[in-house]
Amino acid sequence: MRKLFNCFMAGAILFGTAAAASATEIKIKGQFNFGFGLYDGTTFTKHAGEENFDVVQRFKTQIDFIASESLKGVLQLEIGDTRWGNGGGATWGGSSAGSGTGGAMGADGVSVEVQHAYLDWLVPNTDLQVRMGLQPWWLPAAVVRADYNTGNFILDEDLAGVLLSYGFNDNIGVNLGWFRPWNPYLGNEDRDLYPWMDHDEIDLFALTVPIEVSKSFLLHPYFMFANVGEVDVMREDPDGGYYSTGRIASSLSGNDALGGDGKAWWAGVAFNLDHFDPFFAAFDFAYGSYTADDVAAQTPISPDRAGWVFDLKFGYKLDYFTPVVFGWYGSGADYDGGDGKDGMMPYLSTFWGMTNFGGPEAHFAEKEYLLMDSPAGSWGIGAGLEDIRFLEDLTSHLRFMYFQGTNDLENYNKAAKAAGRDDAFRAMYMFDKSDWGFEVNLDNVINIYENLDMYVDLAYIHLDVEHHADDFESNAWKGYIGFTYNF
Fold first, then answer.
1. Of 80, 225, 290, 333, which residue is 20 to 30 A from 153 by alpha carbon distance?
2. Contact 330/309 with Cβ under 8 angstroms?
3. Tens digit of each residue's pLDDT (9 = 90 or more) over 4-36
4. Strongest mean pLDDT among 43-47, 141-145, 341-345, 389-393
5. CB atoms within 10 A of CB 1
6. Confidence at 421, pLDDT banded by 50, 70, 90
7. How far apart are CA 350 and CA 344, in angstroms?
């Protein structure tokens, strides 16, 4: 009888599981990426070193668990970026656990990463959508590259939080979000020694209002506020000396120490205009400010930072290509002494870039760049031909960009010396007003099959930079062949 009962219960459990599964629709999509790159003159980036040939691969998959139109869960997993010959393996040495492992002989890397894990649901009997969990989120951006969804120059990232979205009608909506990108010492055993760790988090509160004035005129204002705890303050150690508690978002502050009890806010707008098709225009503007109340006495350079940025793009769509011009300007660091403030706009984590070498790479959508990931502290102009389509299954993009810095190195170094430091710009990608450079890109996409694309990219950068370290290269180039399979 007991065996019969156990068999009955096992069958009931299997039946219930099957019934539950049948009630949930599962959709799977993903992407395989492979990249073969040859680089030279890039000692100021993550491609640093004498070796200049790199092969990298990545696998990403997303699983949607759909209960109904009102409820679904989303899980996105990633393996990589795995560099061939690197990251440990089962046969030859090194740890095989962690992000990007398993590239050495034997493979077997334990490197499955959870990128997104969130729940989408509608509040019953309303049109209010709720998204909660680890999710991709970005502030509005209108100026984008044809081959790459260039993001906002303040925040474009994966992070944990809750986002509420509501559409009043077909023309106006609202998004309200709370996100927590940083809470490092939760449950830390040092809380008894350092009680300030009880207030170490950063919280973001964001409001965006998408407005469709017409089908050809889109306006998207936004506002974001950040409450910054005591997360990166230089502190006096009870055993003597000073120590720093980390380097969270150095771009948020103009100082080595971020400062505690800080407040940051941004206000901006993005708009697209296609009313005079085939002519189109896009424009972004933002102002941001960061101030901190708690700054240690041994860091006399103020961590306060405030500034503004804009970028724009114009284009004219023709049958076989689209001529474009683009540009940007970002206020720069302009310390005027020990109590001076940094004039750059603070930002958190960006995906901004006008080109595919100086800016973020297009195909892997990674934050790999040579020159800048934000327009803050620089200005530039450029032109090109996008969506060149003279041959079937081949799309090309040709761009030329010139840029200069807007930072005042002389005043910055005076403040640095007042703080007991003799180094120049501590942020490697900050350029002085006299520094300049240009970049040329030729990016090609070949459609091999319906879901398989091949990328062939060529790029060259020349820099005339006098105020960085001696090993800061003045020229760089790359040749890249990549493959992407979407399923």
1. 80
2. yes
3. 444 444 454 344 444 455 578 999 999 999 999
4. 389-393
5. 5
6. low
7. 15
Residue 52 has pLDDT above 50, yes or no: yes
Give, as one character, the DSSP assignment of residue 288: E
In angstroms, the CA 145 to CA 433 distance is 26
Calpha distance 150→439 (Å, rounded): 17
CA distance 295 to 288: 20
What does each C-alpha distance from 43 to 305, 409, 457 come to in angstroms?
Answer: 29, 22, 20
- Phi and psi at 191, nearest 5°, equal -60, -35
Q: How far apart are CA 156 and CA 428, in angstroms?
A: 21
User: At a CB cut-off of 8 Å and minimum separation 6, what does 337 contact?
Assistant: 411, 414, 415, 418
Give CA 404 to chain center in angstroms: 22
Q: Which residues contact 357 (CB under 8 A, 6 or more apart)?
A: 369, 370, 439, 441, 457, 459, 460, 461, 476, 478
In order of start, what are the domains of the chain with their CATH numbers?
25-486 (2.40.160.100)
How many other β-carbons are positioned within 10 Å of the β-carbon of residue 96?
20
Q: pTM of the full predicted structure?
A: 0.86
Nearest of 209, 218, 221, 324 to residue 271 by alpha carbon: 218
pLDDT of residue 51: 57
Residue 453 reports pLDDT greater than 80:
yes
How many other CB atoms are there within 10 angstroms of residue 481's CB atom?
15
